[in-house]
Specification:
disordered N terminus; two-stranded antiparallel ribbon; mainly alpha; EamA_dom; disordered C terminus; globular; transmembrane helix; EmrE-like; 396 residues; Drug/metabolite transporter (DMT)-like permease; transmembrane
């Protein structure tokens, strides 16, 4: 059986090349696409689909891999697991879509800092218990900066900034601005890998930002408010955390990424959470239920599904599932909080979705910047890489 599987593996990665039949490009450490496009054209093979984006390649290069993961590119002949990746990604988006409305209700009776950081502390306790129960080893030292970026982005940045903003904004208003999140994730993904995206990518991303600013300036009571800028800061933080987490999830599995990020951050959350815990005895049951959701689901379980989807399908494809999040959040804001959804919100949300979709459809047109990790030649990949340690990948 082992010999048969090895033979299959050699068949998959071996192709006839000008250098000689059966040259193993992967074993030679040559990135897929180095000459591959020319060979494909010479053989009369079709071009890659237009939906291919620079982000999947950027994340693969940032992770030190010669090519994106299977299923990272949507199109004809997509990996059979592509729908599975989309399902995991959408499950994460569905979990996150309740975050703003429930946070908005929670800050009516709880301090914003307590809600923003306290939920991460609760999630860290759950994460620590899970890691201890499974006896998971510590992450490699080389990955600690990436874990720090995830922690700053999605454990501290997005929860704190968005919670502070929701003291002054309705959840429906904030959800329109958060619709820019997929574009922010794409920007961080290509920048982190040293890519040079096409001009169309930056035009689409800038158009999305302009749409957000116009919406905030025209729909707000007093025009653009500091709370709108807080939501933008939350979006930027989450984009960084998602991009870095998507890379780490392919090494550790989605659930370990958020668990370790929470555990590493927990010691810094104890003091500010304790100082902001005032008047807890007068909080209603519904507010505590909202806090429980954003702690256990938004901060913990939702990331299991989200990062696993990113690991299976890549940010380029799975990031598009976030396009549904502002629409879902608008619906929950109206149904759960009774907020009024204005035509301007709908128009702005659709405009932002269109801009974000455009960023996902564009491709890089130039090589990586000199001196970046993406510009260096990849080390040879073993023909039969060692398996991951037990419990190191995938969902629970």
């Amino acid at each position: 059986m082992k010999d048969a599987s090895n033979a299959i593996g050699r068949t998959v990665v071996t192709q006839d090349t000008p250098e000689g039949p059966g040259e193993d490009r992967r074993a030679a450490g040559e990135p897929r696409g180095a000459g591959g496009a020319d060979n494909a054209r010479a053989a009369g093979e079709p071009h890659p689909p237009a939906a291919t984006t620079a982000v999947a390649v950027a994340l693969a290069r940032a992770a030190g891999e010669p090519h994106p993961p299977a299923g990272a590119v949507a199109g004809r002949g997509a990996h059979p697991g592509a729908w599975k990746a989309v399902a995991w990604g959408f499950l994460g988006v569905l979990a996150f879509s309740f975050t703003l409305p429930l946070t908005r209700h929670a800050v009516e009776e709880l301090d914003a800092t307590f809600v923003g950081l306290g939920r991460a502390l609760v999630a860290a306790a759950l994460a620590g218990a899970l890691l201890a129960m499974r006896r998971e080893p510590l992450p490699e030292r080389r990955d600690l900066p990436r874990f720090a970026a995830v922690a700053l982005g999605v454990v501290i940045g997005f929860p704190l900034f968005s919670t502070l903003a929701l003291r002054h904004l309705e959840a429906a208003h904030a959800s329109v601005i958060v619709g820019l999140l997929p574009a922010a994730t794409a920007v961080f993904a290509v920048l982190r890998a040293g890519e040079r995206p096409s001009r169309a990518f930056w035009v689409a991303a800038a158009a999305g930002l302009v749409a957000v600013l116009v919406f905030a300036a025209t729909q707000g009571v007093n025009g653009l408010q500091p709370a709108d800028l807080l939501v933008l800061a939350a979006v930027a933080s989450a984009g960084l955390g998602y991009a870095e987490g998507g890379v780490l999830a392919r090494r550790y599995g989605g659930w370990q990424v958020i668990c370790w990020a929470l555990v590493f951050t927990a010691p810094f959350l104890v003091l500010p959470t304790a100082l902001s815990a005032d008047g807890l005895g007068h909080v209603s049951v519904t507010v505590w239920l909202c806090f429980a959701y954003v702690s256990a689901v938004s901060m913990f379980l939702g990331f299991f599904a989200w990062y696993h989807g990113l690991a299976l399908g890549g940010v380029a494809k799975i990031g598009q599932t976030q396009l549904a999040q502002p629409v879902l959040t608008l619906a929950w804001s109206a149904l759960l909080l009774g907020e009024h959804i204005t035509p301007g919100m709908v128009v702005a949300a659709l405009a932002i979705v269109a801009c974000v979709l455009a960023t996902q459809r564009t491709r890089a047109t130039a090589a990586p910047r000199p001196g970046t990790r993406a510009a260096t030649r990849q080390a040879p990949t073993p023909a039969h890489p060692a398996p991951h340690p037990p419990g190191s990948g995938g969902p629970l």
